[in-house]
Design brief:
single chain, alpha+beta, OB fold (Dihydrolipoamide Acetyltransferase, E2P), Chloramphenicol Acetyltransferase, 3 domains, six-stranded mixed β-sheet, 30% helix, globular
Length: 446
């Protein structure tokens, strides 16, 4: 009996995944535990293994499809088994995927014979329910103004997918003369002055200019996955909060001295890997308990202050910015914080972070110091009310006992949500962080 391969649920916050790549083709032999495909959430990528030995009988979705979790994506069994009943949408729908052109022709013929009041064909979208439309297709249709009613789907079980919407997108006609000008390098306006918006050669002459960049020199990068999530969240954060950034610095002599001591410590102590950023995480996790208004979230009708610190920290990955969360950081030792930060950071970089480990933070730290940044404006990780930016260490002139001394200082940039935190309380928190960093050994003993 054939075995279903399901799109697994990766964390409580994930509703669907995009199929990036099929590693096995229909008809291939597969073994239990062998990788069948690679999929992507909006936060991470992971591989799906075969749950059984046998032949990959059917792939119900294609690369690029956005598939809801717990949906059957493929079937494994003995050669020749009928798995049409496993297809999302039912038996006959699986056959439609194999011959979409034929299905479309049959539907058109039936359309001429069927009264207008009849139910739509399996490969179309009805006005009453759109379960046969992928989320990506639905979003693209809304953006491009394409009516989904009656649209024929080429996906599994007649499901409408993004390419169906793109194929149905209304286009503006172009006159032969205007088309020739466009081939020569003229840029067409979105709509022309001709009948029905037809683009005429005069429209190109009036509003377009010769291309200055050859087509082969440009590259279009789809905004999707992690990049899309970052774009949406950053835009929403700046639109919906009142962000104020203040800058200060901390004497970094004790931090540097302790870091050097850790590097020189015996290997069995496990201290050599402790970084300056680990020390910042440790200090902030303690200071937040004394300033609970910074360990908080801003909601439409209330401010929620948390009694424990779930500390997020920014990680730079090839797929974009990720912010894993160290749970109960205020209860962890410096050594434990360092180990957890490394574990989470590696999972982000490798692309296999559990989505649940990217949620639930109460405050965030982002560090650009290693890149030589002197000052920047961190963007709030809403609904959190604060985020601390860590800058590079620079020599700063300070009045000493024997005149001016140049002392290494670590730059700090704190952004607050002014709706929840006023400037003076925010400055007091920043001042406390700077003092604790400057007296790091005392902070460890506290």
């Amino acid at each position: 009996m054939a075995t279903e391969i399901l799109m697994p649920r990766q964390g409580n916050s994930v509703e669907s995944c995009v199929i990036l790549e099929w590693r096995k083709n229909e008809g291939d032999q597969v073994k239990t535990g062998e990788i069948v495909c690679e999929v992507e959430t909006d936060k991470a990528t992971f591989e799906i293994e075969s749950p059984a030995d046998g032949v990959l009988l059917k792939r119900f979705f294609e690369e690029g499809d956005d598939v809801p979790v717990l949906t059957v994506i493929a079937a494994v069994g003995e050669a020749g088994e009928d798995v049409s009943a496993m297809a999302p949408g039912g038996g006959a729908s699986a056959e439609k995927k194999e011959a979409p052109a034929a299905a479309k022709t049959e539907k058109q013929e039936k359309k001429d014979e069927t009264p207008a009041s009849s139910a739509p064909a399996a490969g179309t979208v009805s006005a009453e329910g759109r379960a046969g439309v992928s989320p990506r297709a639905r979003k693209t249709a809304a953006e491009k103004g394409v009516n989904l009613d009656g649209l024929t789907g080429s996906g599994p079980g007649g499901r409408v997918i993004e390419r169906d919407v793109l194929a149905a997108e209304p286009s503006v006609s172009v006159s032969p003369a205007a088309r020739a000008a466009m081939v020569a390098g003229m840029v067409a306006p979105a709509r022309g002055s001709g009948i029905g918006g037809r683009i005429l050669s005069a429209d190109l002459a009036a509003s377009a200019a010769p291309r200055t960049v050859a087509a082969e020199e440009t590259r279009e990068i789809p905004v999707k996955g992690v990049r899309k999530l970052i774009a949406e969240r950053m835009h929403a954060s700046l639109q919906n909060t009142a962000q104020l950034t203040m800058n200060s610095s901390a004497d970094a002599r004790e931090l540097q001295a302790y870091r050097a001591q850790c590097k020189a410590a015996p290997e069995e102590m496990g201290m050599a890997g402790i970084t300056l950023n680990d020390m910042v995480l440790f200090v902030v996790s303690r200071v937040l308990l004394r300033y609970p208004y910074m360990n908080a979230e801003m909601h439409p009708d209330k401010i929620v202050e948390y009694g424990s610190v779930n500390l997020g920290f920014a990680v730079d990955t090839e797929r974009g910015l990720m912010v894993p969360v160290i749970r109960n950081a205020d209860r962890l030792s410096l050594k434990a914080i360092s180990a957890e930060a490394k574990r989470l950071g590696k999972a982000c970089i490798d692309g296999n972070i559990n989505p649940d480990e990217l949620a639930g933070g109460t405050f965030t730290i982002t560090n650009l110091g290693a890149l030589g940044v002197e000052s920047f404006t961190p963007v709030l990780n809403a609904p959190q009310v604060g985020i601390l930016g860590v800058n590079g260490i620079e020599l700063k002139p300070v009045q000493g006992k024997e005149g001016v001394e140049f002392v290494p200082h670590m730059g700090l940039s704190l952004t607050i949500d002014h709706r929840a935190v006023d400037g003076a309380p925010g400055a007091r928190f920043l001042q406390a962080v700077a003092k604790e960093l400057a007296n790091f050994r005392l902070a460890l003993a506290d």
